[in-house]
Write the structure tokens for this entry.
Amino acid sequence: MIKNEIILAKIGEVVLKGLNRKNFEDLLIKNIRRRLYPLGAFEVKASQSTIRITPLDEDIDMDEACSRVGKTFGIVAYCRACAVEKDLEKIKQAACEYLEDELLLAKSFKVESKRSDKKFPYGSPEISKEVGGFIADTFPNLTVDVHNPDITVMVEVRDMAAYVHANAVEGAGGLPIPSGGRAAVLISGGIDSPVAAYMMAKRGIELTAIHFASPPYTSERAEEKVQTLLKLVSEYAGRIEMYTVPFTKIQEEIKSKCPEDLFTIIMRRMMMRVSKKIAEQHECMALITGESLGQVASQTLGAIACTDEVAGMPVFRPLIGMDKKEIIAISEKINTFETSLLPYEDCCTVFTPRHPRTKPKIEMVRKAESAVLWDELIEEAANGAKCTVIYPADSVR
Ligand code: ATP
Ligand code: MG
């Protein structure tokens, strides 16, 4: 670990929150503390739209700390920085020593300075000029390029200290959890629903997960796959309660009593009804699915209207306007793609009709459904859901 090295994290939209800003900042700090706690002691403090994260123990794994900060919603950018005494000579020295590896590799550079401590005797242009001159003398491989430099050396003179760092890394963006409230994501083992979960968590939603399993048609391994996916999502979203719903009876009932071409749409309406019950039991105010318009028969506008009719609460479909390629790009970024590809069956793929209806009429669906007394079955499925709590790897419980 490098001496005096800290992490500076820029907070994003949180700064727009006016009077609520303090609450948002507090949540963000709490989330950072929770994720960093297993790595050792840190001081985490906010000042001037930046959060300063200072390791207090020796031998803290700063790569891992950065990776965790990079997965915390509410942070737009972050960087590792070196804290220096507010003395121009020491700042120059620190810039060359701390950034030596990067400066040796680069061909061009520039220095940008920010002085928020107005008592510091040099203005920003002077700081940049002095530090820039010193770097150019020390590293003959470098030329100054103010427009498109390989490396931008940043000097920030703040209240407590000065900080030197290089280019910042993009953060996870979004808003701190749980500023957006709680919602229940319907999670399958596919590519889409983990991405949908991640996208809503990004907007500050705290997730509860609902998974429908139909043993013996679906296996335990299929369920474990979903748990693995949620564990990956939880690195961003934090702790997730997952409810596994026994869905076999409902599916068998639909298969024996309802017309085949409406099987999928009726099944999806049943999923919504059961999910609504579970969501209400756990104070979720919305449902989330990984649907994308037109992707399959059950995701046409007509089919979505049919499923929404029985949801009884807002249904968020963050992927609705996205192409598969765009969804895959996010699943690769959040590292769920490989796991999603594992070939285990989902309850949606058992009893699939040969010719599903793509333009179901609501009246027709309602009538077809009425062949079964659903209330008890829905109740039984919701109450029979088994809870598993998912935590990010190496985290506080
Ligand atoms: P995914 O990649 O998420 O599986 P998909 O394109 O395969 O999506 P469908 O199988 O039609 O689409 O499912 C649409 C959505 O319904 C999923 O994104 C998910 O939100 C929900 N869903 C599907 N299967 C299940 C399940 N077994 N348990 C809970 N939710 C499910
Ligand atoms: Mg699926």
The CA atoms of residues 187 and 211 lie 5 Å apart. Residues 186-188, 190-193, 210-212, 289-291, 295-296, 298, 346-348 surround adenosine-5'-triphosphate (ligand 1) (CB under 6 Å). The longest strand covers residues 75-84. The mean pLDDT is 94.
